[in-house]
């Protein structure tokens, strides 16, 4: 663990603004800026209370679904809409957890999208969280 953290901290460059996103070099950082800039603004607005990675992931998905960034090559094979949420298989506890994450997302995105749930009627935030969450059998 300490070895991985050492490599992580020494070799990866941080975003100069949010200090959260990391890049292998300046070329990667420049190429990622179009997709990171909205996330960066959100991260800076809630510092030091950074959200869990799942909230950051769903935030990036929301920005992508809103058409703010170009399609990536993998989307020629699959799209996000191809994923299944399997909400009906989730436990009530898991559903409650996802609702909490959806509320956290709304706070996280508010600097970019003032009322995420009113501006995104075609995008079901709960469905997105269900699609990216891993269901574990107990």
TrEMBL record:
GO cellular component entries: nucleus
PROSITE patterns: ZF_MYND_2
Keyword Methyltransferase (UniProt): yes
Official protein name in the record: [histone H3]-lysine(4) N-trimethyltransferase
Keywords assigned: Metal-binding, Methyltransferase, S-adenosyl-L-methionine, Transferase, Zinc, Zinc-finger
Limits of the MYND-type domain: 1-40
The keyword Nucleotide-binding is assigned to this record: no
Matching InterPro entries: H3K4_H4K5_MeTrfase (IPR050869), Znf_MYND (IPR002893)
GO MF terms, alphabetically ordered: histone H3K4 trimethyltransferase activity; zinc ion binding
Pfam families: zf-MYND
Catalytic activity: L-lysyl(4)-[histone H3] + 3 S-adenosyl-L-methionine = N(6),N(6),N(6)-trimethyl-L-lysyl(4)-[histone H3] + 3 S-adenosyl-L-homocysteine + 3 H(+)
Enzyme kind, highest EC tier: transferase
The protein's Enzyme Commission number: 2.1.1.354
UniProt-listed GO biological process terms: methylation
């Amino acid at each position: 663990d300490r070895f991985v953290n050492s490599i992580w901290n020494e070799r990866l460059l941080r975003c100069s603004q949010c200090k959260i996103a990391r890049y292998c070099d300046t070329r990667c950082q420049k190429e990622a800026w179009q997709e990171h800039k909205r996330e960066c603004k959100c991260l800076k607005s809630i510092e030091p209370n950074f959200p869990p990675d799942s909230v950051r992931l769903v935030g990036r998905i929301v920005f992508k679904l809103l058409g703010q960034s170009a399609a990536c090559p993998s989307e020629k094979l699959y799209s996000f809409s191809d994923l299944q949420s399997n909400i009906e298989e989730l436990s009530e506890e898991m559903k409650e957890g996802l609702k909490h994450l959806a509320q956290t997302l709304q706070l996280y995105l508010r600097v970019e999208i003032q009322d995420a749930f009113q501006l995104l009627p075609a995008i079901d935030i709960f469905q997105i969280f269900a699609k990216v969450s891993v269901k574990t059998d107990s």
